[in-house]
């Protein structure tokens, strides 16, 4: 009796399982049916837009002869990626591109730097196609940017899915944008922001009132001092200006340099209590510790002023701060090298009759006099004259 009941129960369970299996095979689930019948909007994934190959060209500028080993171009390349994200300020790229141009001019490879910077201002910036009224490409609306004349009137490319709205398609506009990178025509867009230039070119798919001046541009921390340019004029290094003919008269140490000190306080770090020194304006009597008096071709060594404070020695070029230093020896060396660059530029520009070898000899004499300048600096630091 017990065995018969167990057998009957087992048969019932098997029959129930078979019925469930039959229902699963013959009838699709409600959720599967809903998914299959729903219209799905797809967007093609596009990779690499935030890391264009031109960023490798930016990094390569830091390896050129004359470029200082401060890693600044690597910093710029890393920071530039963030300016291409959908949520980034559309004006944020321009201060970085301007800095590439400025450093190229300062360190003797202006042509290469300008070529790279022009590509930077022309690359595509992402946008979010699901951002409602913001689901359009955004462009900088500050007519003062970019500051470099060589970067003016260049139109940034746009995402291929954008365009229309009564204006050019993305393909039509991008063809125009690429063309603007090949010629310098800054006079054709005077007083216009990039956004205004885009609209004038016939592209209408833009975010309304986009891109005021950046309030927090994607700017990497600036070095506390501008490093000494490796002298491209000295013989035996890279041929200087004598051999390549590409940077004739471009490596000048009289460029105005903006000095920025960025302090990041870690856990437990004390905040600085003393502000950076304000730049002095020239060789005031009693403060200049540069004792070398040679002035070949009318180019004396720039003054090295003792101003006290946390970085007490300042090199002044053309009435502007060129660098501030902790040690007198480093400041005096900078002064000598600036003089050498100015001397060599006079020769290479054929404004004077002479040779870079004469500038080299004077530079050796200037460096030999550093010890005398250090002695003068030590007296000032001790309060004597």
Automatic annotation (TrEMBL):
Residues 210-252, 267-287 are annotated as: Disordered. Residues 1-32 form the signal peptide. Residues 278-287 have a biased composition (Polar residues). Keywords: Signal. Residues 210-228 have a biased composition (Low complexity). It comes from the Eukaryota. This is Uncharacterized protein.
């Amino acid at each position: 009796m017990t065995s018969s009941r167990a057998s009957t129960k087992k048969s019932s369970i098997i029959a129930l399982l078979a019925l469930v299996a039959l229902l699963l095979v013959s009838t699709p689930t409600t959720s599967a049916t809903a998914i299959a019948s729903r219209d799905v909007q797809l967007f093609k994934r596009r990779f690499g837009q935030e890391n264009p190959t031109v960023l490798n060209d930016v990094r390569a500028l830091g390896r050129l002869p004359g470029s200082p080993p401060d890693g600044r171009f690597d910093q710029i390349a890393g920071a530039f990626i963030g300016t291409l994200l959908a949520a980034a300020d559309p004006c944020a790229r321009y201060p970085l591109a301007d800095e590439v141009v400025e450093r190229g001019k300062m360190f003797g490879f202006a042509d290469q730097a300008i070529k790279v910077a022009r590509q930077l201002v022309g690359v595509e910036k992402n946008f979010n196609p699901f951002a409602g009224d913001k689901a359009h490409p955004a462009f900088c609306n500050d007519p003062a940017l970019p500051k470099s004349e060589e970067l003016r009137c260049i139109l940034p490319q746009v995402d291929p899915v954008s365009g229309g709205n009564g204006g050019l398609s993305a393909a039509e506009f991008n063809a125009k944008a690429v063309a603007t990178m090949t010629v310098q025509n800054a006079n054709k867009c005077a007083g216009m922001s990039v956004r205004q230039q885009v609209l004038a070119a016939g592209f209408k798919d833009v975010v309304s009132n986009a891109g005021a001046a950046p309030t927090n541009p994607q700017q990497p921390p600036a070095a506390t001092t501008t490093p000494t340019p490796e002298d491209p004029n000295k013989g035996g290094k890279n041929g200087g200006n004598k051999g390549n003919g590409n940077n004739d008269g471009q490596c000048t140490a009289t460029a105005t340099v903006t000095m920025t000190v960025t302090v990041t306080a870690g856990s437990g770090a004390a905040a600085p209590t003393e502000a950076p020194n304000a730049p002095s304006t020239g060789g005031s009597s009693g403060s200049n510790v540069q004792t070398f008096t040679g002035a070949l071709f009318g180019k004396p060594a720039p003054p090295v002023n003792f101003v006290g404070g946390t970085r007490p020695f300042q090199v002044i070029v053309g009435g502007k701060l060129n660098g501030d230093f902790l040690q007198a020896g480093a400041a005096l060396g900078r002064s000598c090298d600036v003089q050498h660059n100015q001397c060599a530029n006079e020769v290479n520009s054929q404004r004077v009759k002479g040779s870079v070898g004469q500038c080299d000899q004077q530079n050796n004499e200037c460096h030999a006099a550093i010890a005398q300048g250090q002695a003068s600096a030590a007296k000032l630091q001790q309060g004597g004259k």
